[in-house]
Amino acid sequence: MSRPPLAKEKIIDAYVSMLCEEGERAATMEATAARAGVSKGGLLYHFASKELLAQGAIDGLLRTHEEDLQHMGSAPEGPASYFVRTSTVIGGELDRYFLAVLRLAQGGHEPSVKALEDVQEGWLNLIQLEVKDKYAAEAIMLIGEGLYYQTSMPGSWSTGTFGKDLDHLLKQVERLKNGN
Amino acid sequence: MSRPPLAKEKIIDAYVSMLCEEGERAATMEATAARAGVSKGGLLYHFASKELLAQGAIDGLLRTHEEDLQHMGSAPEGPASYFVRTSTVIGGELDRYFLAVLRLAQGGHEPSVKALEDVQEGWLNLIQLEVKDKYAAEAIMLIGEGLYYQTSMPGSWSTGTFGKDLDHLLKQVERLKNGN
DNA sequence: GTCTATAAGTCGATAGAC
DNA sequence: GTCTATCGACTTATAGAC
């Protein structure tokens, strides 16, 4: 896990951080290089184009997403509650990659849109294993996505209206889980 | 309502359309001028900076949002269902302004983030008049925002997974509205 | 009011020294 | 591997003709 040259990881980390904290427009190759502590030419040795840099962020998302599905599938509270609960907690490795790729997707980057669709499908499949009512499962998915919509607002890292009411929100999820 | 010079409206309309259809990055002043049928210099006579152009889009959002609150408050189905239902219907004047300002906000534009917070607060207040349970109202808001999260994906204009299941989704909203 | 021309700066990417 | 230097394209904004 720590074999590849250190510089590559530092660059991806800097790129993802800039996407999360300052948006896609600010995440230029020059700014990324400066934050990673290398020169622009040094960055381009490891990532020959901006497209390859974006692909690096997508790879990180898919890798951490697979790990997350393991945790979600074996969570004592069940996949649905696990999903909604972790939708509000920003700061983990998966969240950082997710938000970074979300920013790329919202900027029109097609491979990022595709990656997010795959991630979303993985979540929905697990939730539907627990919540048999298809439309209740979809409503729960939308609540989680609504929370991501909020955290995707620049400057509002985990300061959303709903973060502090998480326990009450999970009760609403319980009501959706238990059919009429 | 139709007093101000026609060119200004054409320019705002072109700017909003480009934000919606091709994203923030493509909505340059040059491209906006071309789409509005004026030259770059002609555009800058009406909007002296890109910031003022963005403010024009925000003004359009706040104006149409006030009109929407009237409809939402007097909707026979109630504000909550009206809100979720109209979250999936893209194409109206408000939706265009909302999506345009959302793109600006996601690009890090602070005045747009502030405007969206105000719009969101207006919606939540109306929903809470109907749905007394505060947390049920918040869950309904999140479902609507989850739908907006999907429509905010470039290239997926109203082709989301949930658009065709709207009737079933509204039944889930009904369950949240009627307390336990 | 609307245009052309251009200034001034930034972006991604290349070339070549060390 | 990492750097400096620089190119060509693009973006916002200004100046001034009509």
TrEMBL record, chains A, B:
Taxonomic superkingdom: Bacteria
Alphabetically ordered keywords of this record: DNA-binding
Location of the DNA-binding region in this protein: 28-47
InterPro entries, per the entry: Homeodomain-like_sf (IPR009057), HTH_TetR (IPR001647)
HTH tetR-type domain mapped to chain residues: 5-65
Keyword flag Plastid: no
UniProt xrefs under SUPFAM superfamilies: Homeodomain-like
Annotated protein name in UniProt: AcrR family transcriptional regulator
Organism: Paeniglutamicibacter kerguelensis
